From TrEMBL:
<dbReference type="InterPro" id="IPR019734">
    <property type="entry name" value="TPR_rpt"/>
</dbReference>
<dbReference type="InterPro" id="IPR026000">
    <property type="entry name" value="Apc5_dom"/>
</dbReference>
<dbReference type="Pfam" id="PF13424">
    <property type="entry name" value="TPR_12"/>
</dbReference>
<protein>
    <recommendedName>
        <fullName>Anaphase-promoting complex subunit 5 domain-containing protein</fullName>
    </recommendedName>
</protein>
<feature type="domain" description="Anaphase-promoting complex subunit 5">
    <location>
        <begin position="175"/>
        <end position="199"/>
    </location>
</feature>
<keyword id="KW-0802">TPR repeat</keyword>
<dbReference type="InterPro" id="IPR051476">
    <property type="entry name" value="Bac_ResReg_Asp_Phosphatase"/>
</dbReference>
<keyword id="KW-0963">Cytoplasm</keyword>
<dbReference type="InterPro" id="IPR011990">
    <property type="entry name" value="TPR-like_helical_dom_sf"/>
</dbReference>
<feature type="repeat" description="TPR">
    <location>
        <begin position="76"/>
        <end position="109"/>
    </location>
</feature>
<keyword id="KW-0677">Repeat</keyword>
<dbReference type="Pfam" id="PF12862">
    <property type="entry name" value="ANAPC5"/>
</dbReference>
<feature type="domain" description="Anaphase-promoting complex subunit 5">
    <location>
        <begin position="211"/>
        <end position="276"/>
    </location>
</feature>
<feature type="repeat" description="TPR">
    <location>
        <begin position="36"/>
        <end position="69"/>
    </location>
</feature>
<dbReference type="GO" id="GO:0005737">
    <property type="term" value="C:cytoplasm"/>
</dbReference>
């Protein structure tokens, strides 16, 4: 066995050993390029089939191969392709993040692909603007018509499902409204006094929800605005999104279509970012319920 190993090294150290090493390095690079190309083709197949998760998985693998090759242009191409997949899944904000990162890399390596990507970004921005305008116009048209009074009892299950995702209501639901609200306010004051910002934000959300369900809209807005600020401070995206949805309900009740569009759109984008499909679905169901009255 030792003689066999020595004979291999003798071969590699021959007169043309340097050329052989270059040949093998080129071969390795070709294999990596082939692997990258194959992964991109497989990802494209899954994307065409509508399987977003598999498409992104193969594109992430392609990105890793490009990274191993230290080929920034191919890395940018993988990111660009991920943006396309998110765009086809109607996640425009996420798609734009990938497109912009890909463009940054394209620019850094002076890639000819940067021109096409710039044009794509412009088109996507136009699409996003058109969607925003269309949504706003629809809301404004519906707001101009006489709106029925919101049936808070009908939307209460949606509100509970959203709020419970951040902080359980079990300990309060078994008691009367007066007892529950008293306990929440007492717990809120304690959290505030000891500097427990995370708990303070959640309790403010509960207070906002209770006030909303009991038609104390000005009080609800005050609590929810404070909750939003604290959720941002503690980087609690889930809590922030839920607070935004409840704020959107208030905007609907107060006949502010622009505020409704902004709140619900912002919440949905956060849920998409967190891959919280159930919460995204509940939010959209709630919005449809509001416009069904």
């Amino acid at each position: 066995m030792i003689l066999i190993i020595l004979s291999i090294f003798d071969f590699l150290k021959g007169d043309e050993g340097g050329e052989s090493l270059e040949k093998y390095l080129r071969k390795l690079e070709e294999l990596l390029e082939e692997e990258f190309d194959t992964l991109i083709r497989i990802a494209t197949f899954y994307a065409d089939e509508g399987d977003t998760r598999e498409a992104l998985d193969y594109l992430e693998r392609a990105y890793k191969v490009a990274s191993d090759m230290n080929d920034e242009e191919l890395m940018a191409f993988a990111l660009d392709s991920m943006g396309d997949v998110y765009l086809s899944d109607r996640k425009i904000k996420t798609a734009m993040e990938y497109f912009k990162e890909a463009l940054r890399i394209y620019n850094s390596v002076n890639s000819p692909l940067r021109k096409d990507l710039r044009e794509k970004i412009k088109e996507v921005e136009k699409i996003r603007e058109a969607i925003d305008i269309a949504s706003l116009n629809r809301l404004q048209e519906e707001a101009e018509a006489e709106m029925a009074e919101v049936d808070l009892g009908a939307i209460e299950p949606f509100l509970d499902r959203l709020v419970e995702r951040v902080e359980s209501l079990t300990m309060y639901q078994s008691q009367s409204y007066e007892d529950s609200i008293s306990q929440i306010r007492e717990a809120y004051q304690i959290a505030r006094d000891i500097g427990d910002t995370a708990t303070e934000a959640s309790l403010l959300l509960l207070l906002g929800a209770y006030s909303l369900k009991n038609e104390d809209f000005s009080e609800s807005r005050k609590y929810l605005k404070k909750a939003e600020d604290l959720f941002k401070k503690t980087n609690n995206d889930m809590g922030l999104a839920v607070a935004m949805v409840l704020m959107g309900v208030l905007e609907f009740i107060e006949n502010n279509p622009e505020g409704v569009a902004s709140a619900f759109r912002g919440a949905v984008e956060i849920f998409q970012k967190l891959d919280e499909r159930e919460m995204e679905s509940v939010t959209l169901e709630l919005l449809n319920k509001l416009y069904s009255f």
